[in-house]
Write a structure and sequence with these properties.
The protein is mainly beta. The protein contains 1 helix and 10 strands; from the N terminus they run E-E-E-H-E-E-E-E-E-E-E. The chain starts with 6 loop residues before the first strand and ends in a 26-residue tail after the last strand.
Length: 164
C-alpha cells in the first residue's frame, strides 16, 4: 500500500473506459492506455482488498473452510482458510483469517502467495475498526500497514471526474 505511483482512471460505464492518466501525462495512445488501465485495475483490486476483504468472503469463486481454533499472539481465534477458484489476479493465493471467538471480527490475516505453502508470507493485524459512514472498517492499523486516511463520502464533485 502506498508504494505505487498515483494512477487516476476515469471509467465510462457505457464505453467501458475512455481516458487514462498517470502522473499528470495524458495517456492517449491505445496501447499505453490499455497498459495503464490494466495496471490501475490491478492496484485497485489489491488495495481495495486490504480494506474490504471481510465483505468479499462470499464472492463467487471464494472458498472458505473452517480450520478449527488456534492461538496467535496470546489470543484464541476461529480460523477460516480462504482460497480462490479461477477468480482474481492471484487465484493461487491463500489466506488464513483469525476471527475473534467472542466478537466474530477478523483480527489477523495470514497471507500465502501459494495455497500449497504451510508457512505464511506474512501475518498482519486487522484492528482499529471504526465506523466510516455506515460501514465498519479496519484502517490505520497497529502495524502501520494496510489502508490509511480512509474517508467515506456520500457525494463527490463532478469535476473530480472531468478535470485532470
Amino acid at each position: 500500500m502506498g508504494q505505487y505511483p498515483f494512477y487516476f482512471v476515469e471509467f465510462f460505464w457505457a464505453q467501458r473506459f475512455d481516458v487514462g492518466q498517470a502522473n499528470g501525462a495524458r495517456a492517449n495512445r491505445v496501447a499505453r492506455r490499455q497498459k495503464l488501465l490494466e495496471r490501475a485495475k490491478g492496484i485497485w483490486v489489491n488495495d481495495s482488498y486490504w480494506l474490504t476483504m471481510p465483505f468479499k468472503l462470499k464472492d463467487t469463486g471464494v472458498t472458505l473452510k473452517y480450520m478449527g481454533e488456534d492461538t496467535l499472539k496470546n489470543g484464541r481465534y476461529n480460523i477460516l482458510e480462504m482460497t480462490f477458484a479461477n477468480v482474481g489476479f492471484t487465484p493461487e493465493n491463500k489466506y488464513k483469517l483469525y476471527v475473534g471467538i467472542q466478537d466474530k471480527m477478523i483480527k489477523y490475516w495470514a497471507y500465502y502467495n501459494n495455497a500449497k505453502k504451510d508457512t505464511a508470507n506474512f501475518v498482519r493485524p486487522w484492528d482499529n475498526y471504526q465506523k466510516y459512514g455506515n460501514v465498519l472498517l479496519s484502517a490505520d492499523r497497529s502495524d502501520n500497514g494496510g489502508p490509511k486516511n480512509v474517508k467515506v463520502v456520500d457525494d463527490l464533485p463532478d469535476k473530480l471526474f472531468t478535470d485532470f
